[in-house]
Amino acid sequence: MLTDTYGRTATDLRVSLTDRCNLRCTYCMPEEGLDWLPKPDLLSDDEICRLIQIAVTRLGIRDVRFTGGEPLLRRGLVGIIERTAKLTPRPQIALTTNGIGLARLAGPLKAAGLDRVNVSLDTLRPDVFAELTRRDRHQDVLNGLAAAHQAGLRPVKINSVLMPGLNDDEAPDLLAWAIEHGYELRFIEQMPLDAQHGWQRSTMIDAERILASLRTRFALTPEPAAHRGTAPAERFVVDEGPHRVGVIGSVTRPFCRACDRTRLTADGQVRTCLFATGETDLRAALRSVGQDGSDEAIAHRWQQATRAKLPSPRIADVDYEQPKRPMSAIGG
User: Fold this and answer.
1) CA 232 to CA 250: how far, in whole Å?
2) End-to-end distance of the chain based on CA atoms, in angstroms?
3) Distance of alpha carbon 302 from alpha carbon 279, whole angstroms
4) Smallest Cα–Cα separation from 142: which of 132, 154, 156?
5) Which of 118, 159, 240, 267 is the most exposed place for a label (fewest CB within 10 A)?
6) pLDDT in tens, 75-123
7) pTM
8) Using CA atoms, how far apart are residues 96 and 70, in angstroms rounded to an integer?
């Protein structure tokens, strides 16, 4: 098992398939000038599947989520999901995507074994979408959401980030729209993981402001803490149910004590925390010859990395320093 010295066990693996993306969201990437990972450094499909197999069959991983960058840009995505679904024990398989291309791929992904999907959508207004993402692809995302729902990828979850002066007035509208379409909405505090290091605590739309905005139109009742488990989102019953809305307050309401995640970057580095400043290289072991490259040795290296996990990244501290890698190169 992947257990740290604070009694937490990682059972949820986040696998980044690429650092590339076809949007340029202001809270994640600069408009231009970001260097991609060199292609030889990226894990092959076989290497990714081997690490997932080790994690599931040797280390107790029960949930695998594929992320990016934008994972739909990975040509081998359907095959990777299909191979993951054939593992014993079979893990739950999820995908986090910006939704562009999902209209075409939702059916094949479901057939390959994908169980559920999270789609990023920060606004209902096409002009604001274009300003936030620097791309005119709003309708493509809406089409992708509809296709995912039709394909049976349930629940379809929407991830929304509110940015000051752009979409910070849209929380109630987004929730009403999500309820109307049968999607589950989660708001995420803007995190200090942008490539341009432009994040500012003073301007961040935090969980309290998000909830206050929602309560101008809806009655929100917190779910019992026992229902949350290790989930990052605090969930609230909307207008006495049955609908729910979630808020992930990574900065102001951290959930480190219940963390059950381990992360694998597209170039084969293990990260024990989204906000960690250190990594453990598994790619070198994968590509080595001899005992150091065995499944047992790789599993042991992964366990050692997990044991060194800190109790908290201290993200709420005023002197917190961002990781060198941006979100796009870590995986959400």
Assistant:
1) 8
2) 23
3) 11
4) 156
5) 240
6) 999 999 999 999 999 999 999 999 999 999 999 999 999 999 999 999 9
7) 0.94
8) 8
